[in-house]
From TrEMBL:
Residues 25-223 form the ABC transmembrane type-1 domain. Gene3D superfamilies: MetI-like. The lineage of its organism: Bacteria, Bacillati, Actinomycetota, Actinomycetes, Micrococcales. It comes from the Bacteria. It is found in: Cell membrane. The gene is ehuC. The chain crosses the membrane at residues 25-50, 71-89, 101-119, 156-181, 201-226. This is Ectoine/hydroxyectoine ABC transporter permease subunit EhuC. Residues 254-270 have a biased composition (Low complexity).
Length: 277
């Protein structure tokens, strides 16, 4: 009974902290979505530059990718919040300082860090597009923006989604480190507050684990639906409606020709005009 009384008290404390927990959860979702979209833009830009034949584009992209992949996210946050503002003080810069909007600074740090990882996924997906597709765009005299928008990137997009999904889930879990940033009361920060009237097992190992799992599951299912749609537009898989439909998928027209022929007794008929010996 003591254990039940303790859990009852924990859930009562959770009810008292429900508003703060909900606000922290909304902040985490906002941080994940904003930094994920911004990181995707950074990944596409750096991925295209890294896959370029021009050394003037490929060289700086490789330096940026390796640098931001190699440094810790924690170090990057400290550098943006406590080192970069020194330049504002020294040079009397009139632009808003990083510490003036800590949420935006945290989102930019996450976007830069995970965007550098995503750039490799973009570059590898572009190089996985068959060479014949590139040659066809050259034969059709397509401009670079036209061939990337209509031919190359739609095929690479379907290939890069699984890798980007993993990175976005990592970004969701990595956003917990933003709890050290002032004035950004995200979900992990509020879990630390919940730990005081309860215990770490209830706040982190139960509430935190279950919540992050549900968020990651929703994000994964959404990206899988996006992948199914991208592959269907390329004719490489069923549509999302066919996947979710309880009815069996219709047999494609060429399935009959692909089926193995029926075995039946071999019969030979003599040709007309010839006698059977």
């Amino acid at each position: 009974m003591d254990w039940l009384d303790e859990q009852r008290a924990n859930f009562e404390a959770l009810g008292n902290f429900s508003d703060r927990i909900l606000d922290g959860l909304i902040t985490t979702v906002q941080l994940t979505v904003i930094s994920g979209l911004l990181g995707f833009v950074i990944a596409v830009v750096l991925g295209l530059m890294a896959g370029s034949r021009s050394l003037w584009l490929r060289g700086p992209a490789r330096v940026l990718i390796e640098f931001f992949r190699g440094i810790s996210l924690l170090v990057l946050l400290f550098w943006l919040l406590y080192v970069l503002p020194l330049f504002w003080i020294k040079y009397d810069i009139t632009l808003p300082a990083p510490q003036d909007n800590t949420f935006a600074t945290a989102a930019i740090a996450l976007a830069i860090n995970y965007g550098a990882y995503g750039a490799e996924a973009v570059r590898s997906a572009l190089t996985s597009v068959p060479q014949g597709q590139w040659e066809a765009t050259t034969a059709l005299s397509m401009s670079w923006p036209h061939k990337m928008r209509r031919i190359i990137f739609p095929q690479a997009w379907a290939l890069m989604i699984p890798s980007l999904t993993n990175l976005w889930v990592h970004l969701l879990k990595g956003s917990a480190i933003v709890s050290i940033v002032p004035e950004v009361n995200e979900f992990t920060f509020e879990l630390d507050n919940l730990r005081r009237p309860t215990d770490i097992w209830f706040s982190h190992a139960f509430i935190g684990l279950a919540t992050y799992f549900v968020l990651a599951l929703i994000l994964t299912l959404g990206m899988q639906a996006l992948e199914a749609r991208a592959k269907h537009k390329l004719g490489r898989g069923p549509s999302l409606w066919e996947i979710l439909s309880p009815d069996p998928r219709p047999t494609p027209p060429d399935a009959a020709s692909a089926a193995p022929p029926r075995t039946k007794a071999a019969t030979t008929r003599p040709r007309a005009g010839k006698e059977t010996q």
